[in-house]
Structure formats: structure tokens, C-alpha cells
TrEMBL record:
Designated name of the protein: Rhodanese domain-containing protein
InterPro entries: GlpE_sulfurtransferase (IPR050229), Rhodanese-like_dom (IPR001763), Rhodanese-like_dom_sf (IPR036873)
PROSITE patterns: RHODANESE_3 (PS50206)
Organism whose genome encodes this protein: Pararhodobacter marinus
Domain Rhodanese: 79-178
Amino acid sequence: MGESEQIVNFRVSRGVPGQKIPQRSGIQIPYLEYYCRVCYLTVNRSCHPLGSLTMFNLFSAFMGGTAAVDPAEAVAAVGDNRALLIDVREEAETRSGMARGALNLPLSRLHLAADPASGHHDTRLAAARKAGKPLYLYCASGARSGRAAGILKQHGFPEVHNLGNLGAWQRGGGAVLR
């Protein structure tokens, strides 16, 4: 780590999406959502106005802690029925296109779909858990699918990957239904 970089540690309690974070070490980072607990961000002090946040650290901290995934690997695993592909966009968003073989479980309903005690538990998700299948998630940008990965990990799914967006699926050779 260079002289102009340091690790910034701050805690965010559950709050309101869009809440401003109090300044710590002279940095104010707005719009962090309530999914975050403790974050360690690498900040480059020589970059203005906020410093540069290392994108891996940012996504790792806020988006479910999933590592990068090879889209072609995801397409192959889903095509061979070794994995389950989940689109976490809202139903209206899927009208513009959806990955072939994807299950639409919007982020807004994912807690219920993943909870076996819920009356709204999704049986396909339960079957994937029982079979030990990895889950690949996508949305419009990768943000919601990252949050969804965190939710599914909290519900005991051991292998959850954030594919990012529908474009990543296509770059990996996956078909899109329109």
C-alpha cells in the first residue's frame, strides 16, 4: 500500500437506503445501503474528490462478498443442469429479455422464496439446495444480484455467484429469450 493509501474502517447500522454516512477520516461516502455491516475500503488520498475506492473491495463489501465469475463457466454449468441461474430483476424488467433457463425470483421477494418456513418458499430453489447446486445470479447491473447473493448465503446456500448482468450471460455464450 502506498503512502497516499490507507484502510478506512467504519460501521453502518441498519438504516434507510440513501442515508448519508458521517465523515470518518475526512471521507464522506453517500448512499451506502443498509446491507453493510463493517467495511474496509482502500482509499487513494491523492485522487479527488473522495479518493478512489478499489472496486473489488467495494463490491466485496457491499454486494454479497462474491468473487468474480467466468460467464462461459456459468453458461456451461447451467446448460448441463449442474447449476441454477436466477434473474433477480422485477417481473416487468424481464419483458425486455431473460436468460434461457433462468428462474425469475425478484430481489423484493427473495427472502420469502429462500426461507423453507415461508409459505412462499420456492420449490426449485429448495431442490437446488438439496442437490448442492451452485447458484448464479444476475440483474440489470450486478448490484441487486450482489445483494441477493448475500441474502441466499444468509439462508444457507453455500455456493452463490454474482454473474452481474444479462450482458455477462450473453458474453459467455448464453441465449436470451425475448
